[in-house]
Amino acid sequence: MLPSAVAEVPLWVLDTNVLVSGLLSSVGPPARLVDAVLGQRLRLVLDDRIEEEYGRVLRRPKFAIDPVRLEALTALFAWQERVVAGVRRGKRALHEEDEKFMEVAAVSRDRILISGNLRHFPVACWGGVEVLSPLAGWRRLQGLVG
Questions:
Q1: CA distance 112 to 40
Q2: Which of 1, 28, 42, 111 has the most CB atoms around it within 10 Å of its CB?
Q3: Which domain holds residue 119?
Q4: Per residue, what are the HEC states of the chain?
């Protein structure tokens, strides 16, 4: 178990595009969110489907992500919040492959999903989940832990 007040650390779902952006650039809100995960000021909520996607996408040669930074992040996956998500009822995300993020966020404590593709998650599909841009998420995180 991670040291200190784990229960007080925000538990959010990050869309894969946020991790890719945060690992490709050291500036901007996605990078700050990745730094928060690495610094244990933010915990990811994930299931096996999301972890598999993270690993597959983040290792794509076209991204050429710094292997040291990538391994530091993926090593932390074992310490993140694991859930078992069911199929949600009602309006779904625009793309079937994005629905897993909504399903996981729906059963998480904080019910927050951060995505760089907000158009993939129309408000009608939120169903109690709050979907935020990386900038809005970073601002929220600063207010919570700042």
A1: 17
A2: 42
A3: 7-141
A4: CCCCCHHHCCEEEECHHHHHHHHHCCCCHHHHHHHHHHCCCCEEEECHHHHHHHHHHHCCCCCCCCHHHHHHHHHHHHHCEECCCCCCCCCCCCCHHHHHHHHHHHCCCCCEEECCCHHHCCHHHCCCCEEECHHHHHHHHHHHHC
> What domain count does the chain have?
1
User: What does the pLDDT look like over 19-56, one tens digit per residue?
Assistant: 999 999 999 999 999 999 999 999 999 999 999 999 99
CB-based contacts of 6, cutoff 8 Å, min separation 6: 43
Which stretches of the chain score pLDDT less than 70? 1-7, 88-95, 124, 145-146
